[in-house]
Write a structure and sequence with these properties.
This protein is α/β, with parallel strands linked by helices. The protein is built from 13 helices and 21 strands. The strands form 6 sheets. The protein has an 8-stranded mixed beta sheet, with helices on both faces. The longest helix has 24 residues. The protein is elongated, with a radius of gyration of 25 Å. 42% of the residues are buried. The structure holds cytidine-5'-triphosphate. The site of cytidine-5'-triphosphate has 15 residues, from α11 and β16. The site of cytidine-5'-triphosphate (CTP) has 15 residues, from α11 and β16.
Length: 405
Amino acid sequence: MLKGKTIILGVSGSIAAYKAASLASMLVKQHAQVQVIMTANGQYFVHPVTFEQLTGRKCLTDTFDRNFEFKVEHVSLAKEADLAIIAPATANVLAKLACGIADDMLTTTMLACTCPKLAAPAMNTRMYENPATQRNLETLRRDGWEIIEPASGHLACGDDGKGKLPEEKLLMEHILRACALPHDLAGKKVLVTAGPTQESIDPVRFITNHSSGKMGYAIARMAALRGAKVTLVSGPVALDPPPFAELVPIVSAADMFREVTERAPQQDFIIKAAAVADYRPASVNDEKTKKAEEEWLLPLARTQDILQYLGEHKREGQILCGFAMETSELEERAREKLGRKNLDLIAANSLRVEGAGFGTDTNVLTLIDRERTEHLEIMSKEAAAMRLLDRLVEISAEKTKERTE
Ligand code: CTP
């Protein structure tokens, strides 16, 4: 996702500097050009050679360091950068940046940078909570810096509290959100549903399905990286929630109905990727059902069709997208659902196609709207999520144009 991007990674003097090495490696794997700049104290914790090996570029440590050519390096680097991140950022570096002090290569370069700038503070809790540090962070926010909130936990000094550098994976998500994708969903509210529902039989047993939630989680993540305000209403899954989405955990179809319909009127886009149970046990036993010799026939009652309800209550300009999983006659059935449920788009996939369906990391989607059908090839669920969002953004623009004409 970072192909063609140049990223400055500033490393200052905190024990968390070791995490910057794996962040540098992750950035390189995403095809970014990574230029590491270390402060003098940063070099006590990790040797510059580590970063040089990982990035294939000289690690800059001195204001008068040169990389490839004899240019004014801090200025030319600042011009070249698509994003700068200081991780870890010490109280001292933050204070210098807040005051505009430029007394080494890192602070000098930051002063010349106009690209998005991120700082991930890492220090002892008392230092972090000190009014001077908080004041400096506030100044930096006002100056346009994105401050990544430190995590809480056991700190290297032995104290417990706030001040840990967040995990590299989370730092990476901040970087991706800041510079990887166009923010064409900025200011938009997107609600995504994901995962299965569980319908209780008794306190021990339930009915569910094979949905892993991966497709819905990928859509929520990508929408957030494209700038949307995302709400993810999710059934029980074994996935980490995407960092920038509000997670609303639910269990049953009735829970999902309640949580989704309450939030629906405020949404610009609703994408229903969840595999909602169509049936639930007609009654739930309070006690565990004891086994008997004869067959157990379980009467089932219909759950409410959430998507149908959303289609009936769709407000003007709102975009509604459903999913259809079929085992035969994919396109015909999906197109019929599109009309019947008043949808703008339906993403159909077949359980019979290799690489599509439950649990896989890939999907093979057919995107069907009122005018056209687009067959996508097999791709990662993230890539499929991007294509789906592209179509929804297009449909939304077309609808806005129609309304204003
Ligand atoms: N869905 C829903 N509420 C339900 C059942 C399904 O909102 N109670 C949504 C799913 O989230 C999905 C879409 O409806 O976006 C398709 O679900 P599916 O069960 O495949 O479609 P149905 O319309 O129920 O049709 P059928 O059972 O005939 O396949």
